[in-house]
Amino acid sequence: MNPQGLPRRLQLAAGAMPEPGTLPKPYPYETVEPVHEGFVERDGVRTWHAQFGERGPWLVFSPIYQIANSHMLRGVAPWLSQHFRVVVMDLRGNGRSDRPQTADAYTFDHYYADLLAVVDRLAIDRLAIVGISATAMAAIRLAAEQPQRVSHLVCAGGWVDMTLRTGAAREAAELALAKMRNNWPGFLDGFFGAAFSEPHSTKPYEDAVLRNGGASDGTTVALGRNGWLGTDVRAAAARVRCPTLVLHGDQDKIVPFAQAETIAAAVPGAQLVTIGGGGHLLNARDPVAFARRVRDFVGAAPARSTWVRGMARKPKALFLSSAIGLGHVQRDLAIARELRKAQPDLQVDWFTVHPASAYLEREGERLHPACGRLANESRHFERRAGEHDLQAFFALRTMDEVMARNFLVFCDVLREEHYDIVIGDEAWEVDYHYHENPELKRQPFVFLTDFVGCLPMEEGNEREAFLCADRNADDIEHVARYPWIRDRAIFVGNEEDVPQLPFGPGLPDIREWTRRNFAFTGYALPFDPASLADTEALRVRHGYRRDEKLMIAAVGGTSVGAPLLRRIADAFPLMKKQEPGLRMVLVAGPRVPRDALPAHEGLDVLPYVHNLFEHLACADLALVQGGLSTCMELVATRRPFLRFPLERHFEQCIHVTQRMHNYCADCTVRLRELGERELAERALRTMHSPVDYKPVETDGAARAAQQILEVMRNRHWAAA
């Protein structure tokens, strides 16, 4: 135990415990809204439930044992709701349901009756039922007692018999109950540490401890657990006649594997799928494998499909472009155009969300129809941002629901269509889940990125450093075990742009590891700098006067930069006073409302500027947030600029800052260190100072395209 009374693992992997009853916001899921939610009441106890999805068969999750709540299904329920009408509920004692404090309110009969009450309230006449852990017993009972109602039964890590038959078993149960009541954090650490026995499980462990167990308290959960003990549904299992799937990890340290064998032996025709190396909660640790097995077993197949003969297929590429800002999609389009120059018959389909999707549509590109089913990663980052502050590592870490849903949608696309290649620009969801589910890879995959390695930003924050190193180690082990997942890994930059820092204690140097595992292409500009060299012509084209001093402030395609724009706007009157002919244009982007910014004479606010780099190329000064793409475009067009990286954003503060130094563009400013007057003076001084940047390579997009084509043509190994 540490001085704060928390187990060491809990302190490092999860952090501080919340107040009992605290639920995450939004609850239960970030990427999907309920079609219906409400409460059913029995004997004065309310049970919360929600329906997600409006079409397809009913898929009901029996409410999870009180140590958890519906949040634990966040990796699977959002995607399953695209195929089924999914029902989740919180068992009395956790989540949004009531927490009675008497033992008689917690019995297996009550739990089963609560499940029935929700099913009846929703008037469901035919359903597939899923039971996880203890609640598999309620699912088995429903399938046995109402066979006309249950089409399929799924038991995952499920108990069938919780009878305490020996003195040792009864003593262990009493010790567990005592620890629940007297040392709740210690119990949660022990329980979920055992539940997630798989390596690199810090994120599901954190969610389970803080957002599931932490949402209740030890006394309540002890009451709830007592209600499960002594239950035996083996006789009911023998009466089940519907198709039954039993999923169970062979390393499950909570529910013995023998329980799965008992269920499979009792239910006629049951399928037993063993998860080799798997722990207790497959739905949380391996959401892709869990969700796909449930979908395929219950059978929500598409009504129509098409199979095209191999030689009748046109060459196609699916291009996944990160929608966090607009820089990725602009360089990706430059690469795609180079691909089509070399192979004119290549069809490129795009897989992304707003604002990247809007940019591509304006450029006449084809978006895959399934893009409408994707969760928006930009929105996730916006929710995590503060006042010019974004803890980027934790924003990435908490994007697991988004990643699971989007990867599963991606798998749906590749299930129905053939692509000759998949190209992913920082497509972390595909890269991660391909490595976790390597059997799903069906075509060449090229991975692009402009940074490698998550790095801690808060000095003395032991937890951040530990978790960064754990994530990096996971990535390193993925690549070492499955080098063929990435047919080519492309670093959009040069070797010296990679920091010479360790991934973490005992881990390799980032630059050396990247050199061994990536091809370097130089930066991929979305334009030829020579075409933008005539600043007077650009000003005429875009409606700026030739004789005015033009300052442009831009923050990219998310609303994260809104505080920076407001600070710049507040400093503008001071700049205008010293430079009367100054005009400032604030490019708010598509996600910052105009009325969120102040108004001043000489200051214009534009909601969106297509191909912003053309405007920046004729500005006397640019003030930008600090992301790589805009900064590299300014270096390429040799414009003076200041960059204001977000606090605690490791990519902007470390990776991009190093690259700016490499191009002799050391113009980084910490916004919190400047008042309005200092900001105005620094901006004007920079506007009148000459630049001496290192030239940016102009063939980066072509070099990246050539690397991709080598993979598509699969002839790089052949003799010339």
UniProtKB/TrEMBL annotation:
Residues 553-698 form the Glycosyl transferase family 28 C-terminal domain. The keyword Hydrolase applies. This is Alpha/beta fold hydrolase. InterPro entries: AB_hydrolase, AB_hydrolase_1, AB_hydrolase_fold, Glyco_trans_28_C, Hydrolase_4. Keywords: Hydrolase. It comes from Ramlibacter pallidus. GO terms for molecular function: hydrolase activity. It holds the Pfam family Hydrolase_4. Gene3D superfamilies: alpha/beta hydrolase, Glycogen Phosphorylase B. The keyword Repeat does not apply. Residues 81-281 form the Serine aminopeptidase S33 domain.
